[in-house]
Amino acid sequence: MEQRRIFEQVFTTESAIAAFVFLVVLCALAYSLIRRRARAGATPSPHAERQRLETVYVVVLVGIAAFLVVYTASANDREHPGGESHAAGRGVEAAHPVTVDVTAFQWCWKFSHPAPGPSRAGEATTTANCRDGRLPTLVVPTGRTVRLKITSQDVIHSLWVPALRYKMDAFPDHTNSFTLKIDKEGKWIGRCAEFCGNRHHSMDFWLKAVSPDEYEEWVQQHQGAAPTPEAST
Amino acid sequence: MTLAPDAARSTGASRSVRPRSWLGWAISTDHKRIGLLTMGTAVVLLFLMGILALLMRSQLAQPEQQVFSPDLYNQLFSIHGSGMIYMVMTPFAIGLGVYLVPLQVGAPAIAMPRTTLFGYWLYALGAVLMLTGFAMPTGAHADGWFSYPPMASSVYTPGNGTPLWIVGVFAATVGSLGMGWAVLWTALRKRARGMTMLRLPIFTWSMIASTLMVIGAFPSLLAALTLLAIGRVEPSVFDSNVWNIGYQHLFWFYGHPVVYVMFFPYLGAVGEVLAVFSRRRFFGYKGTVISLLVFAALSMSVWGHHMFATGQATNDYYSLTSIALLVPAGIEYFALVGTVLGGQLVFTTPMLFALAFIPQFLIGGLSGIMVGTPVIDYHVTDSYFVVAHLHYVLFAGSAFGLFAAVYFWWPKVTGFLLDERLGRVHFVLLVIGTNLTFLPMFWLGQFGMPRRVATYPEWAGFGALNLVSSIGAAFLAAGMIAFAMNIQVSFRRRPKAPADPWQGHSLEWATASPPPRYNFTPHLPLPPITSNAPLLDARTRQGQGRA
Ligand code: HEM
Ligand SMILES: [Cu+2]
Ligand SMILES: [Cu+2]
C-alpha cells in the first residue's frame, strides 16, 4: 500500500497549504468587507502599485513553487523507482514479482495469473460479465510484490482501486504496468475510471488479498480451468 | 481633444443600419452587434446546457435511478460539457472582447469586421449542428467533451451524433479563431492616439493574452478533430496506440490553454468591476499584465498533466510546468485582493459577483495544484474530484465573472438598467447553489465515485452527498430564473441608463449608452487618454480643480 501512504502524505501537505492560503485570502476579504465599505467611511488608497512588496511576494511564490515541485517529484519517484510506467515496491524480491495480466473489455475484466515458466499452460484465469453484481475477483498474495500488466481488448478503460489511491489506464495495443504490495488480507472494490460506453458505470471488480499459501492454493485450483464467470459480492 | 482619425466618419448617422430589422442584425459588421449576437447566443445556450445539467442531477440524486437510460445520460453529459465549453464560455469570452475591445482602445470599429461576422455565423452553425444530434435516431454525441478514440470511432460509437459533433465543434472553433484574430489585431493596431500598450485597460490585456492562446492552441483542436474524422472513415487507424495517444496529445495541447481562454477574460472583467466599485485604480497593473503573458506562454507547456494516468507521459515534467503556474496566478490574486484591500467598497450586483469570484475561483485553483501533482492525480483523475475542480474553475469562477460582466456592462450595452433587487436574489441563490452542488463532489471523488457514470449502486454509499448536490442544483435553477426575470423586466420597463452609471474608468463609459455606430463622435469625443483609467484621471483632475 505504498501508493496509499504516499498519497495520504502529499495530499495532507497540499491540503494544509491550500487551507492556509484560502484562509489568508478569506481574512483579507473579510477585513475589506467590514472596514473598507464606503458606508464605513473608508477612503480609497492612492497607491496604484507596491513594487517592493510585490517583488518580495513573487520571490516567496517562486519559493513555494520550487518546494512543491521538488517535494511532489520526489514523491512520484518514490512511487515509481523504476521509471514512470511501472514500479512501486523495492528490494530483491521486486525483481521477481507475482505477475497478473489484466485485460479490460467492454464491459468487464479478465485476470490471468501465468504460472512460473515459459509455457502458459498453468495459467489461472478469472473473468465475469459485470452484470447484476457478477464481478470478477483479482486475487493477490499479501506481503509480496505484485505486478499488474494492464491492457485492453477494445477501447480505453482505467483500472482504479480507490482504497489503493491509484489507477492506471488500460489501452488497446499497449501494455501498462505497475506494482503493488498489500500488507493485510482484505477485499476492496475496483472500478473502471475511463469512460468506455454504456456500462461504464457498472464495470467493477474485487481486489482480494489472501495469504501467500492461500494464494498458491487458489492458483492451483484455477489452473487450466476455463475462465469462470465468478459470482461474488 | 484627441480623436481617432477615422472616427470623423461616424458623423454620418444615416450610415447605421435600421435598428429594428433582423437582417440589420444578421449581417451588420458593427462589432457591437456581432458581440451582442455572440453573447446573446451564448447566454441562450447557457440556459439550455444548464437544463441538461439539471436532468443529470435528477438522475444522480439517488442511487440506482433510471430516469434516463445510460445511453441518454451519456448524451446529456457529453452535450452539456461540450456545449458549455465550445459554445458558451469560450464564445462569450471572445464575444465580450469583440464588443468591448474596440471601445476600450478608442477605435471606431473592429479590425476585420467581415471575418468577425463570419466567425459568429460559423459558431452559430456549429452550435446548431451539435444539437441536431438529438434529432438523430441514434441520438447525440455520447463520448464526452474530449471524445477519445477508439471509443469515439465509428466502431464503438456508430451513428450520426459524433460526426455532427465533430463538424459542429470544428465550425465553432474556426469561428472563434476568426473572432480572436480580429480582437487581437484591434488591440494591437487600432488603438487611438495616446492609447499606449501600457494604458490598455486590464480587460483588454486579458483579451490579448487570451487571443494569443486562441491562435497558438486552437489549430491543434482542428488537427485532433481531423484525425478523429479520418478515423471514423477508416477505423483501423485507431488499432494503433500511436494514434490513440497522439489524439490525446493533440487534444490537450488545445484543451489546457482553452481553460485559460475561458478564464482570463472573466478575470479581466472582474478586475475592472473590482476597481470601479472600490473607487480606485486597479492595483498592481503592471504585474498583472506581465503575469497574464507569462501565464499564456506557460499554458502551452502543461498539457500532459491531463494524461498522468495514461502511463505514457513524462509526468515529472508536466507536473513542474503545472505547478509553476501558481506564480502568475498568485500575482493576479495579489492584484485582485490588493484592489479591494485599499478600496472604498460599493456593493452593487456586479461587485457582489466579482467579490464571490475571488474565494470561489481560489478553490478551483488550489484543487488545480492538487490534480497537477501526479501522486494525487493518480487517485482523483477521472473521478468526481475532477468534476468538482472543473466546476469551481468554470462555474464558481468564470461564470461568476460572466454574471459580473453582464450586470456591469448591461446598461452600457442596452441603455437600460437591470434591477438591483432581483440581481441580489440571483446572486444569493447562486452562491448557495454553487457551493451545495459542487463542494460535495470533492468527497465523492475521494471516496471512489468515477465521473461519467449514469448511476451508482446503493452499497457504494454515495447517496447522501449526491442528494445534497442535487438540492444545490435546485437553488441554481431558482437563481437562473431570477436572472431571466431580471432581463425580461429590464426589456419591458426600459429604465433609462445614463452614459456612465457606475463612475467607470475606461473609455466605453465616455460615450453614450448604447454607443453610436462608430463609438465616438464629435459630440461624444474621446477624452484625453492619460492612463489605463482615463475617466478616473479626469474625475480626479476635476476634483482638484474645484478644491
Ligand atoms: C458555466 C457552467 C458550466 C460549465 C462550463 C460546465 C462544464 C462541464 C464539463 C466540461 C463537464 C464534463 C463533461 C464530460 O465529462 O465530458 C461537465 C459535467 C457535468 N456538469 Fe457541468 N458545467 C457547468 C455548469 C454546471 C451546472 C450548473 C451543473 C449542475 C447543476 C453542472 C453539472 C454537471 C454534471 C452533473 C456533470 C456530469 C458529471 C459526470 O457525469 O461525469 N454543470 N460540466
Ligand atoms: Cu471500462
Ligand atoms: Cu469505463
From TrEMBL, chain A:
Protein family: Belongs to the cytochrome c oxidase subunit 2 family.
Keywords linked to the UniProt accession: Copper, Electron transport, Membrane, Metal-binding, Translocase, Transmembrane, Transmembrane helix, Transport
Chain's role: Subunits I and II form the functional core of the enzyme complex. Electrons originating in cytochrome c are transferred via heme a and Cu(A) to the binuclear center formed by heme a3 and Cu(B).
Domain Cytochrome oxidase subunit II copper A binding: 95-221
Membrane spanning stretches: 15-34, 55-73
Name of this chain's protein: cytochrome-c oxidase
Cell location: Membrane
Assigned EC number: 7.1.1.9
TrEMBL record, chain B:
Membrane association type: Multi-pass membrane protein
Segments forming domain Cytochrome oxidase subunit I profile: 16-530
Intracellular or extracellular location(s): Membrane
Principal location listed in the UniProt entry: membrane
Residues that span the membrane, as ranges: 34-56, 76-100, 120-142, 162-188, 200-231, 251-277, 289-308, 320-341, 353-376, 388-410, 422-444, 464-487
Pfam family, one: COX1
UniProt keyword annotations, A-Z: Electron transport, Heme, Iron, Membrane, Metal-binding, Respiratory chain, Transmembrane, Transmembrane helix, Transport
InterPro entries tied to this protein: Cyt_c_oxase-like_su1_dom, Cyt_c_oxase-like_su1_sf, Cyt_C_Oxase_1, Cyt_c_Oxase_su1_BS
Family recorded in the similarity comment: Belongs to the heme-copper respiratory oxidase family.
Function, as annotated: Cytochrome c oxidase is the component of the respiratory chain that catalyzes the reduction of oxygen to water. Subunits 1-3 form the functional core of the enzyme complex. CO I is the catalytic subunit of the enzyme. Electrons originating in cytochrome c are transferred via the copper A center of subunit 2 and heme A of subunit 1 to the bimetallic center formed by heme A3 and copper B.
Protein name: Cbb3-type cytochrome c oxidase subunit I
Species, as recorded: Streptomyces smyrnaeus
Source lineage: Bacteria, Bacillati, Actinomycetota, Actinomycetes, Kitasatosporales
